[in-house]
Amino acid sequence: MTPLAIYACLLAMLSLLAAPSSQALLANCPLGCSCDDDTLEVICGEGGLDVLPIVLNPSLQRLVIKNNKIKTIDSSMQFYAELRFLDLSYNHLFNMPPRTFAYQKKLTELHLNHNKVGSISNKTFLGLDSLTILNLRGNFLDELSDGVFGGLKKLE
């Protein structure tokens, strides 16, 4: 085998090795979403998502999942401790367990508007030390526990 043929074979093998890793990155972006690892932003609009994805980049800083079918936020939030902006407006959210946002210490904006949230416990927003904007407009809030916003010291 000539040196040129060996070089071509090595180049072909390297490109095959690199292909699965780039495909794996693409596979982490749910259908109907736009995922950008450079800007650390994911936007999922007008989709059929019914749960918060857990396979996104854990360094994600901006997550927008509007107009989907998400009903609850659960422990999946723990995977996104670097979030600065979260928009879950126009979903079907009705349940936000205590400490839902315990890992989002850097989150500054949280948009939960136009969902079906009926009550919020005084432990739901624990951990949101940096939160300045909270949008709950258009929900079915009929009960707010005492001190529900007490830990949100930077809220404007």
TrEMBL record:
Keyword Repeat recorded: yes
InterPro entries: Dev_Immune_Receptor (IPR050328), Leu-rich_rpt (IPR001611), Leu-rich_rpt_typical-subtyp (IPR003591), LRR_dom_sf (IPR032675)
Leader peptide range in chain numbering: 1-24
Alphabetical UniProt keywords: Leucine-rich repeat, Repeat, Signal
SMART domains: LRR_TYP
SUPFAM superfamilies in alphabetical order: L domain-like
UniProt keyword annotation of 4Fe-4S present: no
Protein name according to UniProt: Slit homolog 2 protein
Species this protein is from: Culex pipiens
